[in-house]
Amino acid sequence: MARRNILKMGDPLLRKISRPVEKFDEKLHVLLDDMIETLHSVGGLGLAAPQVGVLKRVCIVEYDDELYELVNPVLVKSSGKCVDNEGCLSVVGFRGLVERPEKIVVEYFDRNGKKHTQRAEGYFARVFLHEMDHLDGILFADKMIKKLREDE
Ligand code: ZN
């Protein structure tokens, strides 16, 4: 496993649309393992492959001590609205208030190509949506309704 460098806002790779994973192979497993190590080294709730310069539809979420590895995630249902505070490992110096759906259903594949369906709500849903946005080149800063200081 190896720690990877996290790209910062301004890097053009963060603005690209990532490609779906087609092979659930060793290369994918190494990417996921490296992303986990990278996330643990810096702390945070999630990390998406484009943040480490890999334009694949892969992200990880760690929430309530549970780790989710999402490959080719798709939002299949969403309802409600809520506003909360977000930050990002690729955005240095500020956070922001972002409106997101309150409840979601996401379908994704795990590292072995097995399909899963995950329901989430509140901040847990928010983390999924934030990471999935990265796969389409979107950062929270694009959506925020209010900019906040890092410590707010
Ligand atoms: Zn982020």
Q: In what range is the share of β-strand residues?
A: 35-45%
Overall helicity: 10-25%
What small molecules are bound in this structure? Answer: zinc ion
Multimer state: single chain
Mean pLDDT over the full residue set? 97
Q: Structural class, please?
A: alpha+beta
Specify Rg, calculated over alpha carbons: 14 Å
Count of discrete alpha- or pi-helical segments spanning 4 or more residues = 3
Please summarize the sheet with the most strands.
Answer: 5 strands, antiparallel
- Low-confidence regions: none
As laid out across the biggest beta sheet, the strand order is 1-2-3-6-7
Order of helices and strands: HEEEEEEEHHE
Distance between the termini: 34 Å
* Overall form: globular
Structure description:
- The protein has 152 residues and is α+β, with helices and mostly antiparallel strands.
- The chain has helices at 26-42, 122-134, 140-143; strands at 46-48, 58-63, 66-79, 82-88, 91-100, 103-109, 115-121, 146-149.
- Strands 1-2-3-6-7 form a 5-stranded antiparallel beta sheet. The protein has a 3-stranded antiparallel beta sheet with strand order 4-5-8.
- A hairpin with a 2-residue loop joins strand 4 (82-88) and strand 5.
- The model has no long low-confidence stretch (mean pLDDT 97).
- The protein binds zinc ion.
Short description:
The protein is of the alpha+beta class and 152 residues long. It has helices at residues 26-42, 122-134, 140-143, and strands spanning 46-48, 58-63, 66-79, 82-88, 91-100, 103-109, 115-121, 146-149. Zinc ion (ZN) binds at residues 88-90, 130, 134.
